[in-house]
Specification:
- The structure is a single chain.
- The chain is α+β, with helices and mostly antiparallel strands and 346 residues long.
- The protein is globular and about 50 Å long.
- Helix 2 (27-42) runs antiparallel to helix 3 (53-75), helix 5 (109-127) packs across helix 8 and helix 7 (147-159) crosses helix 8.
- It has 2 domains: 18-190, FdhE-like fold (Alpha-Beta Complex), CATH 3.90.1670.10; 197-331, FdhE-like fold (Alpha-Beta Complex).
- It has helices at 8-18, 27-42, 53-75, 86-95, 109-127, 129-143, 147-159, 170-186, 269-272, 310-316, 318-326, and strands at residues 22-23, 209-214, 224-228, 234-236, 251-254, 256-257, 262-263, 267-268, 285-290, 295-301, 330-331.
- 42% of the residues lie in helices and 12% in strands.
- The strands form 2 sheets. Strands 1, 2, 3, 4, 5, 8, 9, 10 and 11 form a 9-stranded mixed beta sheet that branches. A two-stranded antiparallel sheet has the order 6-7.
Length: 346
């Protein structure tokens, strides 16, 4: 048999298709792993991400929240979270739009998920004196929300609108939304999710990414993915490209001098692709800055810490946010587990 010779355009297409463009979430393992990572971060066990003492207690609280998410996912009845129907999938494919848009109607089961999450947290508070006082107080406030107030909080979380949100309520509402959307997203087929016209939004739900991560293993080896803070999906974006304005001419990488937790000189984008030694703590967490739009988004590198979790690591590396902000860059989007109020994202 004569083997057909591929033309250059076909070769490029073949290489592109070999890259998994979309990694769908696995909520049954994701939240439990995140809880473990948050506790490791809180204990100061992650060399590349120094955590200020004032942040440790909050990370422990968020670890309890992630444990509660894992418990709720385990108890969800099969089919209780509606999946995208055939018509929705066809519309999404035809118009290159998200298949599970966050701006659509939420199924009523999300309130049951929220209630179950509070029940799990109440059980945790009963067994954890260190968390009990503060956690029970916020749980009482959350249980007192009527349907209108709860929906308004959920709308604000999904709109990333910090102006009309209680910063203590929002992470718990966001956690319920993450359970809802990640469960629905996990039932999709990646091949049925179309690319959007922009690579800066999640193709599954249309949310902004929290951070990006460089993955290792299999076909994803060495590729950069953006991580959605709501449905927990990850989508491929080439490295050394701004995940906000999608330009690549003025990109640099800034991190921490871990000895003093101070910034070190920006790494030029041209040096980012050079071979580097694995397990370098300085390269676990860095900020990708863009001088075209003057925004930044963090990049977490699995080549330097196998257990990186983009959302947890982003939450813990607030010190990096402060330093990059002082350098004149604005954070591109927030973290749904931390709200600073008055419109300021994490």
């Amino acid at each position: 048999m004569v083997q057909r010779i591929l033309q250059p355009g076909e070769i490029e297409g073949l290489d592109h298709n070999a890259i998994p463009r979309l990694l769908l979430p696995q909520p049954k393992s994701l939240f439990a792993a995140r809880a473990l990572r948050l506790r490791e971060l809180a204990q100061g066990n992650i060399k590349g991400i120094p955590v200020d003492a004032g942040m440790q207690g909050y990370l422990v609280l968020m670890a309890a929240l992630a444990d509660a998410q894992a418990a709720v996912v385990d108890k969800l009845a099969p089919g209780s979270v509606p999946s995208a129907d055939a018509d929705a999938l066809r519309r999404a494919m035809s118009h290159r739009m998200p298949v599970l848009p966050v701006n659509g109607a939420r199924p009523p089961v999300w309130r049951s998920i929220f209630s179950s999450l509070l029940d799990e947290l109440a059980a945790t508070a009963a067994k954890t004196p260190a968390l009990a006082t503060g956690l029970n107080q916020v749980l009482a406030q959350l249980r007192a929300l009527d349907e209108a107030a709860l929906d308004a909080c959920a709308d604000a979380v999904l709109d990333e609108n910090g102006d009309h949100i209680n910063p203590m309520h929002a992470p718990f509402v966001a956690a319920a939304l993450q359970v809802l959307w990640s469960t629905a997203a996990s039932e999709l087929r990646a091949t049925r999710v179309p690319d959007l016209d922009t690579g800066a939004l999640c193709p599954v739900c249309g949310s902004h990414p929290v951070a990006s991560v460089i993955r290792i293993g299999g076909q994803s080896q060495g590729y950069r993915y953006l991580h959605c803070g709501i449905c927990e999906s990850e989508w491929h974006m080439v490295r050394v490209k701004c995940s906000t304005c999608e330009q690549n001419g003025k990109i640099a990488y800034q991190g921490l001098d871990l000895a003093g937790a101070a910034p070190f000189d920006p790494v030029a984008a041209k040096d980012e692709a050079l071979p580097n030694k694995a397990n370098d703590p300085k390269k676990v967490a860095r900020a990708e800055t863009c001088d075209d739009c003057h925004t930044y988004r963090k990049v977490f590198n699995q080549e330097h810490d196998y257990n990186v979790d983009p959302l947890a690591d982003d939450l813990a590396s607030l010190m990096l946010d402060l330093l990059v902000g002082e350098a004149g860059y604005q954070r591109a989007s927030g973290n749904p587990l931390l709200w600073l109020g008055k419109g300021e994202g994490a």
